[in-house]
Design goal:
Elements lengths: L4 H5 L7 E5 L5 H12 L8 H12 L9 E7 L2 E9 L16 E7 L8 H15 L4 E6 L4 H10 L2 E2 L10 E6 L6 H4 L6
Parallel strand pairs: 4-5
Antiparallel strand pairs: 1-2, 2-3, 3-4, 5-7, 6-7
Length: 191
């Protein structure tokens, strides 16, 4: 049986988990998920800086022309969201090499954490990047986001300090290996 490292390490999620693009009428709910998920970091920034950061982060409407807003739904409730910037988009072009999509603003409501929802959302971004033939996918995080940072490292993301923002925003990249169709991966190599 051929399994990817993501399948081997992914925590179990409820069978009812659905990952899909957010519908416009769900943008408000996705915005609230981001606000709820990031609220714990407010105390680490001056108030005015935090307010600017959370307003930009929660403004999912402003990104819809250049990015894909992916949501995680469990039993009819949205519990998570992530923004995927395909290659060539404005975010992916900020410091990442050509052909490197970006992942931003992974958010899971506090009550939905530790159920594999965040991992599943990242896996979906990786799947989309592979489907586009991308060689890698990048993201930024901070030391304060220790749980997410540890998850990214378990998945296989590697530090890329040349793409850090200042001293506190850390860049990570996952190099993607092309995936072969099941029958091709089972054939012996040509002699």
């Amino acid at each position: 049986m051929n399994m990817s490292f993501n399948e081997l390490e992914a925590p179990r999620v409820k069978p009812s988990l659905i990952l899909r693009d957010a519908q416009p009428e769900e943008f408000g709910a996705a915005s609230e998920i981001i606000r709820a998920a990031y609220a714990e970091y407010a105390s680490g920034m001056p108030t005015d800086r935090w307010e600017r950061y959370i307003e930009r982060s929660a403004d999912v409407w402003s990104r819809t022309n250049e990015a894909e807003l992916i949501v995680a739904e469990v039993e009819g409730h949205l519990l998570g969201a992530v923004t995927f910037y395909p290659e060539g988009s404005a975010y992916a072009g900020e410091g990442w090499p050509q052909g490197c999509p970006g992942i931003r603003l992974l958010a899971v409501v506090p009550d939905g954490r530790r159920n594999g929802i965040g991992h599943a959302l990242i896996d979906e971004c990786i799947r989309r990047a592979r489907a586009r033939g991308s060689a890698a996918v990048g993201l930024h995080t901070t030391e304060r986001m220790a749980v997410a940072k540890a998850m990214y490292e378990r998945i296989g993301f590697q530090r890329v300090p040349t793409h850090d923002f200042g001293a506190s925003v850390l860049a990570y990249r996952l190099d993607l290996q092309p995936t072969l169709p099941a029958e091709a991966s089972q054939q012996p190599p040509a002699a």
